[in-house]
TrEMBL record:
Keywords: Membrane, Transmembrane, Transmembrane helix. This is Uncharacterized protein. The chain crosses the membrane at residues 21-39, 45-63, 214-231, 237-257, 504-525, 531-554.
Amino acid sequence: MSRSVLVNLELIGLRAPARRLRPVAAGPFALLSLVVALLPIRPAGAWLAAVVACNVVPWLLGLREARPGRWRLSAKGLERLAADGSVLEAYALDRVEEFALTADDGMLTIFHRFGVTVAGSLADMGFDPLTFYVTARRLGITTHVIDGDRSVFEDESLPPEDDAPRALGRRAEQRLRDQEAALLAIVHEPRTAGRTDAGRLSTTATAWRRTTTVGLLVTLLSLTMVARIALGGGLEFGSRLIGGLWALAGGVALIAARRRRLAGAPLTWNITPSELRVRHATVGEWRVRADAVAAAVVGPGSAIDPVTGGPVADQTVVTVFGHRLEIIARLPAHGLDAFQLTHALDERGYHVITPDQGTVRPSEYGLAGLPEIFSRVPGGRLVVDDDGIGWADGAGDVILRMPRDRIGGMELLTVDGHAWLRMYDDEGDEFLAAPLSMLRISRTDLRDAARRVQLPITDAEYDAYVNATFYGSMTHVEAVTGPSPEKPKALPAAQLDVPPRTRALAYAVTATLCELVAVLGSLWLRVDLGGFWTALAWAAPSGLALGLAGAWLYDRNRPQLRVSASGISSVTRLGRTEWSVTRQALGGVGIDEAEAPRLVVWSPAGRVLRRVSFPPDLAELRRECERHGLPWGPPDAGHSAAPPPEL
């Protein structure tokens, strides 16, 4: 497609919303107020004015801050515009030979007629990789996305210029090409809404207004105490030090209150088959008509930082494309569950594209533990006999054997829908993890043969499935004849706690905060208690004792995760159950990457049932879920959990 046809095609970078009061260097000025307070300024009114001015000046400077400009990619080239629309920096289209974007750091490098120029970070320019890549290609500019950071240009490790995207060098470019192809494929497909009701998704703003109010109250208290010290008249060094600490505390509290108000503001999505309405309490509101939307791409992009007001890279942004592949809107989704958002959009008729859509995710369990002889013996298979586990050739002769006294345990589990075997030695170390299809033995044969010769083997999924089926069919029989005297043995429930390092860190932080309060209290009450060192002599041990005692009181009743074949629950160390999800209502347990790696529990329909606030050992949790037959990872919406393979 020629460049002359695409004269009106342009991509505008994001910039800060309407003018908002933003302090300039508020942190350094708050620290400066402590330094100024220590100076012997007379009279007291001048001292008070100087201390207060240090915390007021940043806000006055924010009033004079000019509104930033924006970047634009169009038929004229790549341009940086001022707030009034004038061109400050330009790279003409007829002089640009190639764009190169490094995937790791997002740096844009321009190869033009007279050399090479690093334009800067794509996120700082207000662009995101997908929209920039699509727009540049439609303008006829050769654009490559290189895996790695800017150093790959100096290392001369780039693939040849005429080489197609391949696994080494341009995996990120291949993903962008796949998304572009998906956009071209569905841009004119009709919309079919599965649901007509309104879907509402919002971030959880816990104690947002409360913490902001506390910060403002601390600021007012600090101002009152500084004024009280100044009106007292006697500005000795001790009084000036106390006043400076109060001024510093007030400045920090005001900065924290502002950041909490902006960063913790709720984000709300209202999704209907006719309109998308997104509202962020401190950034703005967006409304997009559904008939103008061709597709929505959910994935990494650029968004406005509520605190700084500038564009930043974000892992969850919804980029809305029109039917001519123009960018209609870039909607923020930071803090929302990308899995829930994707399904809510898809259910209401919006075509959704994700970066990893259609990508096969191989299991993390590799075949490194397979002995080399496994692949060298043609027709080999795994056999179980009284002497242990062996690998036999096509004639049935055992070539390699693992004696039964060296076998510490065996586990049968399901990985990516396939049955796997995991084996441990007598010291508890894993030495083999492989699919049963590679071992050429069925799950049933391996389980029955191992139990027949009394080898230690666990098949938690099979036991849970059989137990649930048995108890469901025998419910009406037990109502008449009473419960059976003998119950089949099941795996004991596993109780998972936070790692010891996290507990030790919590104790240390609590004790440190109490010691800090003790020091400040000794400074404040030194006159009444016979001097600073006398007051500190009893305040420091008391603060340490109170900190450790408070941490112990909280630690003795902390929640823990209990995993069993009947489900997953959160119980305290004293035995109280906070919440519980049964196996029938459980769709999956896994990590939510929307805002930060966080453990969540999904329903079979894909809805988030519980969010776990404390961080357990995730590797141990996954292992216990596999042992007890609980599914790991988000489920497929609308699909019920199937029995283990080969049942």
